[in-house]
């Protein structure tokens, strides 16, 4: 019972402080809150970099066409403080991602977006960033 | 019961994170600050050394003015501010974010007999001279991003006086501006083990009609350490920031 109480207390503490998790640039200046995306795909690259970590996903349509995506996440310092390791997401992982499209982006290459939620094929729900924080 | 389960999961995650923090960098960013008496140095002064999070609002420092007050900005400077675009924010280009601007990431204060150092996880450091020297004057005072800072003690409060700024930094994400004639007085008071009171008086007769004071608090992150944050390494965002600042 003592352990349960301790865990509940820790949980309660977790919701007392609402820490800002994201920085570096405004959400609205780069992403479009009205253009929500949801897709399944395979991770092709992970960039454990600043000011944002990024992961790249190839999404395959039923007809076999591949769309490549470049998803922005929080920075590694924030991800680490939310339980991530550099190896939490690796090349070849199947993921389900939701997020928001960038207003603009590079003329070629993967489509730019920001991750809102990220679920691995084994059901792990991974902290992603995220968009809600940027809109504050 | 669902709430209990959710809290338990949150608790379990936190415990995992905090256990991990003993060997890996990074602590629990949502933990409440510890409570207890103010730690003191051998000479009796409060010891402010530690990793802190927060200070003043990141989004808009006008929310830290006394109730009922507004920013006494001159109209031509308000026009200048209103014309800022998101891409004008120094933050978007990995440039320094000195006080009164704060970041969402932790920072460490290191107090020595001759200097106080601020190590900001987000981008930078600051040095404050507490050896009794004065500000340089005339041509010896170069305008810089972080200015020239000298510090002294008023009782238990560390007072930092800074001049010699350039006019390139913003006070927050909203973009409150300042001129190169800004004089900033920071007051740091550790009110208990886990809390650092932050008070800043901004005196900039060029951009504002009178001095004003904003207050806030930072909380101790006792199990945390700074994590490297090299902003320039993969800044893909800057070219694609569009429109007015938030």
Summarize this structure as a short list of keywords or feature phrases.
heterodimer; A: alpha+beta; B: nine-stranded mixed β-barrel; 9 strands; 26% strand; disordered N terminus
Summarize the amount of helix of chain A as a percent range: 10-25%
Query: What is the CATH class designation of chain A?
Result: Mainly Beta
Outline type of chain B: globular
Distance between the termini of chain A: 38 Å
Termini Cα gap of chain B: 40 Å
Structural class of chain A: alpha+beta
Tell me how many strands of chain A there are: 6
Q: Averaging pLDDT over every residue of chain A, what do you get?
A: 80
Largest sheet of chain A: 5 strands, mixed, barrel
- Greatest interface (CB-CB under 8 A), with counts per chain: A-B, 49 and 59 residues
What is the H/E string of chain B? HEHEEEEEEEE
For the largest beta-sheet of chain B, the strand count, sense and barrel status come to: 9 strands, mixed, barrel
Low-confidence stretches of chain B: 1-21
**Tally of individual domains of chain A:** 1
Alpha-carbon Rg of chain B, integer: 19 Å
Question: Rg of chain A from C-alpha positions?
Answer: 16 Å
Number of spatially distinct domains of chain B: 2
Which structural class do the helices and strands of chain B define?
A: alpha+beta
Number of helices of chain A: 4
Number of helices of chain B: 2
The helical percent of chain B reads 10-25%
Set out the fold topology.
The complex is a heterodimer of chains A (136) and B (246).
Chain A: H1 2-16, H2 27-30, E1 31-47, E2 54-60, E3 66-72, H3 76-81, E4 94-102, E5 111-120, E6 125-126, H4 131-134
Parallel strand pairs in A: 3-5
Antiparallel strand pairs in A: 1-2, 1-4, 2-3, 4-5, 5-6
Chain B: H1 2-20, E1 50-55, H2 75-82, E2 107-111, E3 115-120, E4 125-129, E5 148-154, E6 157-163, E7 183-192, E8 195-203, E9 212-220
Parallel strand pairs in B: 4-5
Antiparallel strand pairs in B: 1-2, 1-9, 2-3, 3-4, 5-6, 6-7, 7-8, 8-9
């Amino acid at each position: 019972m003592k352990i349960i109480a301790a865990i509940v207390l820790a949980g309660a503490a977790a919701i007392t402080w609402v820490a800002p998790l994201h920085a570096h640039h405004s959400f609205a200046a780069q992403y479009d809150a009205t253009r929500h995306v949801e897709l399944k795909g395979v991770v092709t690259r992970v960039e454990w970099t600043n000011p944002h970590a990024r992961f790249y996903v190839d999404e395959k349509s039923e007809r076999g066409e591949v769309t490549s995506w470049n998803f922005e996440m929080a920075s590694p310092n924030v991800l680490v403080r939310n339980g991530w390791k550099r190896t939490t997401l690796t090349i070849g992982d199947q993921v389900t991602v939701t997020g928001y499209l960038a207003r603009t982006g590079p003329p070629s290459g993967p489509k730019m977006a920001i991750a809102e939620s990220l679920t691995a094929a084994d059901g792990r729900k991974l902290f992603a960033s995220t968009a809600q924080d940027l809109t504050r | 019961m669902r709430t209990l389960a959710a809290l338990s999961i949150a608790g379990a995650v936190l415990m995992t994170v905090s256990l991990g923090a003993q060997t890996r960098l990074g602590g629990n960013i949502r933990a409440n600050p510890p409570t207890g008496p103010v730690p003191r140095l051998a000479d009796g002064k409060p010891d402010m050394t530690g990793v802190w999070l927060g200070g003043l609002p990141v989004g808009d420092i006008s929310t830290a003015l006394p109730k009922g007050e507004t920013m006494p900005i001159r109209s031509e400077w308000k026009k200048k501010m209103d014309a800022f675009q998101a891409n004008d924010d120094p933050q978007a280009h990995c440039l320094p974010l000195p006080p009164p601007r704060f970041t969402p990431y932790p920072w460490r204060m290191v107090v020595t007999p001759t200097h106080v150092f601020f190590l900001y996880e987000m981008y930078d450091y600051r040095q404050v001279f507490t050896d009794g020297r004065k500000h340089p004057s005339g041509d010896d005072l170069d305008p810089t991003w972080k200015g020239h800072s000298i510090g002294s003690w008023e009782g238990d409060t560390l007072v930092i006086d800074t001049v010699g700024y350039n006019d390139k930094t913003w006070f927050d994400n909203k973009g409150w501006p300042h001129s190169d004639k800004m004089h900033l007085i920071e007051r740091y008071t550790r009110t208990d083990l886990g809390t650092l009171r932050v008070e800043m008086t901004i005196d900039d007769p060029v951009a504002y009609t009178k001095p004003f004071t904003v207050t806030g608090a930072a909380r101790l992150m006792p199990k945390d350490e700074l994590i490297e944050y090299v902003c320039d390494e993969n800044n893909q965002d800057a070219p694609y920031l569009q429109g007015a600042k938030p």
